[in-house]
Amino acid sequence: MDVISVIRTKRDRGELSDEQIDWVVDAYTRGEVADEQMSALAMAILLNGMNRTEIARWTAAMIASGERMDFSSLSRPTTDKHSTGGVGDKITLPLAPLVAACGAAVPQLSGRGLGHTGGTLDKLEAIPGWRALLSNEEMLSVLDGVGAVICAAGDGLAPADKKLYALRDVTGTVEAIPLIASSIMSKKIAEGTGALVLDVKAGSGAFMKTLEDARELASTMVGLGTDHGVKTVALLTDMSTPLGLTAGNALEVRESVEVLAGGGPADVVELTLALAREMLDAAGLKDADPAKALADGSAMDVWRRMIAAQGGDPDAPLPTAREQHVVTATASGVLTRLDAYDIGVAAWRLGAGRARKEDPVQAGAGVELHAKPGDTVTEGQPLLTLHTDTPDRFAYALDAVTDSYDIASPGTPFTATPVVRE
Ligand code: URA
């Protein structure tokens, strides 16, 4: 087999055979196919697509590139959630302990932020002492003892995806449905969860900008999960405006703890409960009551034990940024738009995200929102607070937020986009 013929097949809109797919994924993982050759193939896939048979085979080849985990020794049913990524999306933080408090085991392998979307591991690392890197044995022991674990995927899990995702990120080939679907599902299937709920986001702050594309991504992933014996369901959710009132690492941990304490922004609570119900349902725990577990403090108990089991101090004060800059409303009226992508870019430029994989992030950096679409605002009132340790970043972040919002004249009717769209 030679790589040029594989690239040419897809370049010329052909269908890749099983043998071509198995060979190219394996040879790339072993370093026999070079990055520039895989970049050309990824671009051909982005431009010309793949059919469901090709996507299924590509996913299977990525799973086969590494090890598979096994949770069959656990007494509780396993259920997991994966979001396709967004701005202010801290849902995993309250969700994993909440679902564990209702009787399931939640093996949440999570990632870091890259670009304008935040990463769960970067957020949790704002908690003093907390460790993302656990051995497989440690992970199983936290999962068994506490009921929930949030950690980085080990090097052995879908190594083809690790290499390919890093390559796609720097070659403009992230936004391809076959590549996103196989990337996410290869990790989740190799992880060995029994049930999986996908939070597929649509809107400016998501990879899928339209509901139609999000729907296609969701149905592709649900098909892959189901074919591998994982009970998989998907919610299509809104990402046109940030979730909650914060985007940034420690800022989002603080908001998540508010949700676990029974408060927090309404959209974060609504989505956390909607996903919890789907996860519990998929795990066969239909009678569990996640709203009760939030209200009676049992989800908070699991959170505290989960953080402590991974070396974190749940009582330690969270880091705050050294400098703040307030952006005020330029008019009075109804806030009709607050753009998720712009806020994500601002948080990233303030230091909450990284430009390159190896860059450190600032725990305290990010954006706090003082109003959400539908709110009435008055000229001069604070709209956003920008947080960073490095004030020379303010000008660059301000560029991103200048056109991030619209204010219509007072009394203009406003219809909010539902958090859960389908
Ligand atoms: N998340 C992933 O794990 N992979 C993608 O390709 C996109 C989002």
Automatic annotation (TrEMBL):
Gene Ontology MF terms in the entry: thymidine phosphorylase activity
Coiled-coil blocks: none
Signal sequence residues: none
Keyword Protease listed: no
UniProt keyword annotation of Kinase present: no
EC number(s) recorded for this UniProt protein: 2.4.2.4
Key words of the record: Glycosyltransferase, Transferase
Protein origin, superkingdom: Bacteria
UniProt-listed InterPro entries: Glycosyl_Trfase_fam3, Glycosyl_Trfase_fam3_N_dom, Glycosyl_Trfase_fam3_N_dom_sf, Nuc_phospho_transferase, PYNP-like_C_sf, PYNP_C, Pyrmidine_PPas_bac/euk, Pyrmidine_PPase_CS
One Pfam family recorded for the sequence: PYNP_C
Gene3D superfamilies documented for this protein: Nucleoside phosphorylase/phosphoribosyltransferase catalytic domain (3.40.1030.10), Pyrimidine nucleoside phosphorylase-like, C-terminal domain (3.90.1170.30), Transferase, Pyrimidine Nucleoside Phosphorylase, Chain C (1.20.970.10)
Stored SMART domains: PYNP_C (SM00941)
Pyrimidine nucleoside phosphorylase C-terminal domain boundaries: 334-408
Subunit structure and binding partners: Homodimer.
Database matches in NCBIfam families: PRK05820.1 (NF004490), Y_phosphoryl (TIGR02644)
Family, as annotated: Belongs to the thymidine/pyrimidine-nucleoside phosphorylase family.
The name this protein goes by in its record: Thymidine phosphorylase
